[in-house]
Amino acid sequence: MKSIRTFLTVVILATITLMVFLSELQGFRLNLAAAEKLFDKQLADTAHLLSATYSPVTDNNPQITETEFFGFQIWIDDQLKLRSSRMPDELIANLEQGYQEHNFGKHRWRTYSYFDELKNVWILTAQRTDVRYTLAENIVIKSILPALIILPLGGLLIWTIVGYGVSPLQRLSDQLRRKQADDFSPLPIEKQPVELTQVVKSTNDLLSRLKASFQREKHFSADAAHELRTPISVLKVHLHNLNKKFPADDRNFQQVVTATERMGHLIEQILLLNRTSPDQFITKFISIDLYKLAQEVIAREYPQFEKKDLKIELNGEHCLIEGDQFALETMLKNLLENACKYTPDDGNILVSVKAEMQADENASQKVVKLEIQDSGPGVPEDQYGRLFDRFYRLDGDRHASGTTGSGLGLAIVRHIADLHKATIKLTKSSFDSGLSVTVIFPFYHANPLQVKKHHV
Questions:
Q1: How far apart, in whole angstroms, are the C-alpha atoms of residue 229 and residue 75?
Q2: 129 and 113, same domain (yes or no)
Q3: Model confidence over 40-87: pLDDT tens digits?
Q4: Domain limits for position 115
């Protein structure tokens, strides 16, 4: 059931149509029987009229208008005295008082026999049954036709009335649809119909509980991350001071340093995830040149690429999109960090920004694509879907590459993509091995095409 209004209109109109049909069917049967009685009465009245005006001893005989479906005969002592021109010379009915049906002249006829005892005269009148039925049906159909004509008008009236009846539900739906992700304010209960009052109360109760739940989650994530920042920072300072007391190849000390860095990275990712989640994020989008933003982020993160002697290339065109600069910077930073982590030394990373037409289900539309490819070990295709789960890492905590991580980087990327109504596509990279991550943004505006390639 896609629409309550449509459902109610169809059901009510179908019910009325069924009732009208049954009523008209019964009326058709009754009216048809009444028409038959009327035609029979006409036969009898005509026979009595002929009897009253016929004189066997004078030429003052009745003049009956000749028709194709009516005829008569007058008999005296088994002799035909008078007939209409379309009637045969033999008897058209038995000389028995009353109504009968007989076949003659290639048609079925309804007859009436009347005996006038004073004049010793039999009057026989006849009507064709097919013409009687046709005339009766025409009369009945003309009585049904107004009801059939008024049904569409009734449907329009029902549609309007039902629409007015469900309008409070439509207004409630509009109020809920206009609510932002962070809007937990209660819905107004005043002037609501009795049927919707409890629905609104239940909705307000749900909004109140959601607000409390989100507040608790926000405070827990933020407070826990901030509370952990301080001891992690102190621990890093102590480890830095102890570094001189341990040999450079001390495995236990290096494990402590690695675990501390991983914990610090995890805390920073939790803070970023909390800040970029849709229920906490305030969407104040501005026009951003995605190509220029990619240049800036690559320049800031370049030292980590340089440590591994990675060749990073940026090409494409200047494309403007609507978005939040901090969130987009975080997305680019996480994608580049992932590519850097899992690309071996002397590997390659390719970043491209371009606008192009993309075929949709109904039509083609212009989009802006951000694609980051690496020459790392890649990811099995059956694992693509799970890469965006929080705290999920391929091969568990100990990745085959030996790199550390929190499993939140791509989860944050997906949150930011959702905020910008973008989609993410994972494929194999154009290198011999590796992963390609493509983020597809809705098209906002693109500068005149001017392909630029930079090796940084």
A1: 126
A2: yes
A3: 888 888 888 888 887 776 555 555 555 667 888 888 888 888 888 778
A4: 4-138
